[in-house]
Amino acid sequence: MHFMHKYTYLINGVYLLTETPRYNLQEVNLPFNIFKDSIPLATSYIRWSDDGQTFGHSLYIQESEIVARAKREGFQVVASFIEEAKSAYHIPAQKRVQMQNMKQFILNNENVKAVIFYEESRITRLIEDFVLYVLGPIKEARPNFKVYSTKIEGEWNENNPYVQARLSFAHEESVEKSRRASDYHTSVVNSSKPERPGSRNPYGYSLTTKDNTIETNENKTIVILIFYLYSYGYSDRKIANLLNEAEIPPPSIDAKGWNDSTIRYILNNRWYIGDLAWFTRTSFDNSKKKPEEDIFLFKNHHEPLIGANLWNVTQFFRNYKQNKDHMDSPFILRDLIYCHECKEKLVTRNSTPAKSKKKYMYYCCPSCKKKISSEKIHESIFADFSLRWGRELKYYEKQTERILNRWKKGLEQKINDLNENLEKLKYLLSTLDKNNEYYLELKEIFEMQIHSTSKELQEYHNTREQIDILSKDEMQSELIGRFKQDIHRYSNEEKRAIFLLAIEKIGVNFSKDNHIRIDYRLTPYVEIEDLMKQIGIESA
């Protein structure tokens, strides 16, 4: 494990081994082998909680105290393990990378006689995790292994009441800090004028000096570019690679470049459409988003950077890609083609031999086993698509406007009906006879119906509001305008993205000389259109 420690420094007669350079110190050569030579060797564990401390004095303060203690205890070498910007309250000792590296280093090197840390809160904020899962296995293998804290004279003993009190205090301090932070965030978002609680500004925004609010900066164009690229079918990783190739600096100064998780975070951030959303994660360890009804959400909180149509398209593709869809696949019509007779979705098959220059790729029916060449059906679809949009684009724009209005009226009627039904359910619940032997069962049934109806009602309200915003967004013309461009000039992912927005399904009748029928969508709003069909609201 010695390969981890690239740098050696001599400080007051003690050799410090570390992974990261100390620019204020002169590097030296270690005059002995820490694995083979019998020398007094200790490890040190250093930790701080957030990025703000990374460039502060935390490392210097902890390290200088540890080296001084090592010299007092007679150690010649200290192998340092540093956990940068990691919470000991949210991340237990056994799950911290450097803590585990240190544990393995100790167990693999019999020369290591001790570990030294600054004080208890550096190793744990959870009282027992360090003792049970790190120190326990070490002492089981090395009963004479020693532990030192720079704040306690003599050895650090986990069974000492004073040490246990210090561990408890470190835990209670974190609990109180967490509670105060949560209370502050809740009070800020629940105020009469909800604000974004103090945290790192979203990429593309800076804090103003005049009134302490945030406003867009020069990076806003990068945010818009990211959304545009994704709306054309590009993956998170491909967007990150394009930004790296263009040498655009990533949001974090510590990052080595853009990565797919950074792109994903930007695309999921509702701040860019003018909403303030808070407490959205399932938990500290689980970044999965909570359901919308469980988060603090204030819509139209500020001026949006991303228009409603662009946001709608990107979120449709985010939901669609959860099935691990590869948008750059040569099978650009996958999931859209069906067998007319079997009603089955066609699957893809690439039968191209390894060294063949010609491609043998097919869409195949899993039931009747009939197939059609991808090249043949692509040519037919491209020709029909180009002819349709060259002829009908202006009509399509007007039709979209009319359909959106029909959907709004249909939703208003559904909302009125649901409100009436909800009132009836509440009335019937209030009139239940508590002496009825089935009272509890009936009460539960009514409560479930009320909950289900309320949830359905909220979905319809949200959809109607979404339609209002989409119909007013100027980007609607740009979105529809994509269809009239020469489809052959688009890349595979761009073609696939456009077809998913424009085509509902393609039927192939193998019994009639592979006759192809294309059912185009009425609007580019796929998820809303599907919902309208599902709840029986007419579009025409």
From TrEMBL:
Domain Recombinase span(s) in chain numbering: 202-326
Ranges in a coiled coil: 408-435
Keyword Coiled coil tagged: yes
Keywords (A to Z) from UniProt: Coiled coil, DNA recombination, DNA-binding
Domain of life of the native organism: Bacteria
GO molecular function, one term: DNA binding
Region (Disordered): 178-204
The protein's name in its UniProt record: Recombinase domain-containing protein
Species this chain originates from: Caldibacillus thermoamylovorans
Source lineage: Bacteria, Bacillati, Bacillota, Bacilli, Bacillales
